[in-house]
User: Fold this.
Amino acid sequence: MKNHDASYVLVAGCGRLGANIASVLSAQGKDVVVLDVASTAFRKLSPDYGGFSIEGDATDLATLERAGIEKAGIVVAATNDDNTNVMIAQIASKIFAVPKVISRLYDTEKEIVYQDYPIRLIYPSRLSISEFEKLMACAETAVLK
Ligand code: AMP
Assistant:
C-alpha cells in the first residue's frame, strides 16, 4: 500500500456539494481529483479548478484506484445518495486506510452504519436547522430593537 499524501484529495460526486469542495480545495493548493458518473457534472467546478476530473462510478474499486485512492490523504463522499456514500466511505476507510474520510449523510437515522468507522459526517439537514435557528435569533433581535 502506498503512503497517503495529506494534500491529495479525492472527491466522489461533483454536484452542488462536491464541486464546491473540490473547487475550494484546489484553490487552496491541494491536489484534487473529482469523480462523477455524469461528465456534465464537471461544469459545476469553478473556472479556476486546477485538479483532475474522472467520469465513473465512485463505488467501483477500479475507478477509485484510477483516481489514486491508494495515496489519498482525504476522501470526501459527496454523492446525492446515502447508501452510495456509505459504500465509498467504508471502502476508503477499510480497504485503503485513508486517514481522513468525510461523508455526506441526509438521513440521520442511518448514522449507525458509520459507528464502527473513523468517518466524519456532513449532515445537510442539521446544518439547515442550525442555520434556521441563527436566522430566527437574528429576526427576534431585530424585532426587539
Ligand atoms: P448534488 O446532489 O448536486 O451534490 O449532486 C450529487 C452528484 O453525485 C451528482 O452529480 C451525481 O451524478 C453524483 N453521483 C451520484 N452517484 C454517484 C456515483 N456512484 N459515483 C460518482 N458520482 C455519483
